[in-house]
Amino acid sequence: MVVRCQLAPQLDNVTVTDRAIPALVEQALLDMVGRLVAELGGGPRPAPRLDDVLDRDLGISSLERVELLLRIERAFGIRLPDSVMADAVTPRDLAAAIQCAAPAAAEMVSAPPQTVSPGIAAPAPTSARTLVEALRWHAERTPDRTHIHLRLEDGTEQPITYGELLAGSNAVAAGLQTLGVAVGDSVALMLRTEKAYFEAFFGALIAGAVPVPLYPPVRRDEIPAYVRRQGAILRQAAARVVLTFPEMEKVATLIRAQVSSVGDVATVERLQRERSRPLVERPLASHDTALVQFTSGSTGSPKGVVLTHANILANVRAIGEAIAVQPTDVTVSWLPLYHDMGLIGAWLGSLYFGIPVVLMSPLAFLARPERWLWAIHRHRGTVSPAPNFAFELVVRRIPDPDIEGLDLSSWRLAFNGSEVVSPETIERFTRRFSAYGFEGHAMCPVYGLAEASVGLTVCPIGSPPRVDSITRHSFEQARHVRPAAPDEPTSLRFVSCGQPIPGHDVRIVDDREHALGERVEGHVQFRGPSVMRGYHNNPEATRAVLHGGWMDSGDLGYWADDELFITGRVKDLIVLSGHNVYAQEVEDAAATVPGIRQGCVAAFGVHDVAVGTERLIVVAESRERDRARRDELHQAVLDCVVSKVGVPADVVLIADPGTVLKTSSGKIRRSATKDAYVRHTLGRRTSMARQWGDLLLQTAGARWKSFARWSARLLFTAWVATVSVLTLLPLWLYLGVERSPRRAERAVKRWSRLVLTLCGVQLDVRGESHLAGIQAGILVANHASYVDAIVLMAAIPLPFRFLAKRRLADYPLIGTVIRKAGHVTIEKTTLSVRLAGAGTIATLLRNDELLMIFPEGTFVRPPGLLPFRLGAFKAAVETGRPIIPIAIAGTRRLLPDGSWVFRHGPIEVTIGAPLQPRGDGWPEMVRLRDAAREAIALACDES
């Protein structure tokens, strides 16, 4: 074997034996790492060691690895696989990768432009109500047309047609149904940017489930923290199945042990191969949940944003109108598919409009950023989004020889969003790449958030980005936005995010939610058809952001000449003796100090009770270890913050690399960093062995707790069964001889109360006063469990008659109760039969009967109300009888669908105010139905 290294004199032009190679490679690599660390700043420091952790010990972040790997490849004449970018934790790992790497091969990134598939063969599916309908629309009309050009590890591309995507998705859906996944169950997608991801996403939807995208683990040294973080998300999502790739099955199994709802962990390939039953089509409606998108958690704990099919399609259509999507458009993206900008903005938007989409993994981009630009060149890409850091990265990290011959003239929309847009980055990117055909007006800053599906505002197409320079003093003191003089040294600069997309409104309000005029900073609120349904299993957080039809974005901004300017996050605003200071500005100022790591500064405020205001804390990472040099950096950061921001920092902490906490996408987690600072745990190091030991102990503890909970449920179930058997026999014998339906009904009511009492189930009935004076009418209740009927018999004091499915009368015990207590059975098959049953209901109402009905008709395991059928409301309108809404809470937990194992817990029954018919015809039926559903949803806390 020959090793050639221009950077290590002892290896230059020398052939050595295989035995000597490892040591020489390691020494040459350490020399290279040492030079890079010295260049990155921090002054003299100890020589790097083979087992130093690249980011924690040496301060080489993910973005700085790009430069290191590039130098390694050029020095050793090799081509490292993309996985080294994520897998390598220490220089020893890099040395092993060097010895296993293949000689440098020409990756055809600079190939001539190629012609991709032509534009859409027919208009976009404007009639589609769901994402599945949109996919089927294209698959049925152009099944062989390429939808995705997927870049693979070896540099080749895998075409995926609409027909292939639908067929693979159907196979996944059948596999999920084989596992017992029910309508509404959450399916977690722990997948990379690969064909399996797209099939899993639509497979979950076709099966009637809800996909929950998760970011896959990137580095093995982060797995313990990853398991804890994703476990918390999966518990919140109540995920039923985790779909992953083979290398991550063991990691997913560790998470499964800590999340009781997860029943199965599977790979997509195995799911498709081992499905044992044909696919059962699940009808989907526009209001069904299409996605639970968890936020990054940069300002707090991640929250699950619930988006319906209608939300996503409305956003995609509005964006398409705003940017004038063309049949010749081609999307190019490396954005992660667990992020709304990559998932909806790049992929699903392209799918809907039928335009080709070229996709690569985020790792492929980070390993060699020039791949993004060459993909635009080769496919004549016209639309390509990215966060601001990516535009900065390609300016700073790509040498000219690597983009010789590049042509970016086809790029008409370079969306810049997802994080703060820097005017300096825009200027640098445009200046450098104008020589390669990029036009300045193609740069298009945008604003959006997961709660709005993805996009909310877009800059005017064809106009260069607008930058507003404003006076600092009036802005910080009174939130007034006044233009600054051209030579004002302390001015602030903000980039316009444009105007709202069609059908959506954005406003700026003060703390009392009064609308503000132009050039006054306030809270950014929005509304429109793209707005989320709420936060998953988090009604308190949902109520906190919805205000009279408007949603609070959590951002601050102002209007200027009908364009929106975002100034920062509310949670990142620091108030210092009346001055409004933004964390981002403080961080940017501190990062300009030589020796401070770029993108590794966190600023936040900590309330000081003694002085009644906040103290400004700045945590800045440095590779510097020398105490005297750190003292110099401390003073330099203090001076820089004062000179550029105008206020002094109360505390400046010069910290080791890796101290500032970040999200998976690299955003500063200011809230988490602040919490760690307050708890005095910031920067506390834990060895990998300790982390894995803690994880295994947590897993063992979680398994034991799961076993204990399951045992308790089995014991409780056994007690319920014993009570039921011992009490049902006397009831059944009594009903066999009782001739009076009223007395039979009273006996059943007493038995229901007795069973709940003996089983220790607390029943809380509210709103009984609403039944005063009611003699005839319809009681409508949500249906969540098999025990609902027993609960209602125990809770409702008035005599009433159930309207049940006719086939229930054939069941031994239930049939006896139905017949003897005088309950009514009707057919509930087709719509015409159900409406005919409304006539039976009307007859009973005219005879002054009080009836009980479940308008959903059935129930499923996941929480949430199913659509209400109209039969009962039709009868109420025809007879003028009231509808009394009844909400049941707790029975779904007590005995969920698909299980006969009980779980102990309280039950609440809320009786709502009667709803009187005020008219006739279909409009009144619909009004009554919607009013009853809203009342029940509010009381049972299920939307």
Helical stretch tally: 29
CATH superfamily of the largest domain: Glycerol-3-phosphate (1)-acyltransferase
Residues in β-strands, percent: 15-25%
Helix share, percent: 25-40%
Per the CATH scheme, the topology name of the largest domain is: Glycerol-3-phosphate (1)-acyltransferase
Extended strand count: 37
User: In this structure, how is the largest beta sheet organized?
Assistant: 7 strands, mixed
Strands in their spatial order, largest beta sheet: 31-37-36-32-35-33-34
Return the domain count: 5
Please tell me how large the radius of gyration is: 32 Å
What's the CATH first level of the largest domain?
Alpha Beta
Average pLDDT level: 83
* CATH architectural label of the largest domain: 3-Layer(aba) Sandwich
Distance between the termini: 66 Å
Helix/strand class: alpha/beta
Instruction: Give the CA-based shape.
Output: globular
Query: Regions with pLDDT < 50 over 5+ consecutive residues?
Result: 1-17, 115-121, 829-837
